[in-house]
Amino acid sequence: MSAKTGVTRRTLLRGGTAASALLLSGCDRPLDTLSETDWFRRLLGFVNGPNREVQRALATGSGLAPEYTAAQISPSFKVNGNDMPDDDAYQALAANQFRDWKLEVSGLVERPAQLSLADLRAFPSRTQITRHDCVEGWTCIGKWKGARLSAVLNQVGLKPQARFLVFRCADAFPGPDGAQPYYESIDLDDAFHEQTILAYDMNDQPLPTGHGAPLRLRAERHLGYKQAKFVMKIEAVESFAKIGDGNGSYWADQGYAWYAGI
Ligand SMILES: Nc1nc2c(c(=O)[nH]1)N[C@H]1C(S)=C(S)[C@@H](COP(=O)(O)O)O[C@H]1N2
Ligand SMILES: [Mo]
Prior knowledge:
five-stranded antiparallel β-sheet, Sulfite Oxidase, Chain A, domain 2, binds ligand MTE, about 25% strand
């Protein structure tokens, strides 16, 4: 995946390293692992683009993404995209093991909150072993534990006008007008979905930096780029028209589908 703009030598080098790491990563290529139904859904998804109604109509049963056993966890999980935000404030927080880090939850909420990692660990949690599918064509299986986003939202109380949640991340990619911050957004169906969590643990360890420390989104019915790493702030909004280039996420602003359902 490369941005239409702003490909620097650094990102190219990073891509090269990532590509060679893939050979040794223990991750599977999607052709080996996806069932025919998955491919059928995917094909329809590509034909219809960001048509979430079609994809949701095709989702069968519980609407849960498949979950796996501990034995199926990939021996190593690829790090993709940014592996460390350049931001000074983020780096200072990381140097102190995120003891002073707080997640801001604001926007169209009744009770805005600043939540420490201890606060987040006190929320009802969910643990899930799921397959991460990157649009670039690799998959890895990992175990994630995190606060149920629904529980956090129940605490802050969404205002009636709230329709989307925007996740603001600490990292950015270079763009023509300077750094473009990474951000993502989901609708309220996904926000309250059983498998949507704010993950602080990966494979029974605190989330490593490369995988988005101290907190990342896991929205398991979506492609990899939806799984925002280094989340600093969650903002409830009525529309994302005035955020970034108005398409709801960094990658949607680069032309990828906002609704990255799988
Ligand atoms: N903040 C942030 N989140 C991000 C990215 C990123 O570069 N920055 N890359 C995305 C992409 S394309 C993928 S495939 C996954 C990679 O997650 P991993 O590094 O844990 O494999 O994170 C997604 N979330
Ligand atoms: Mo990705």
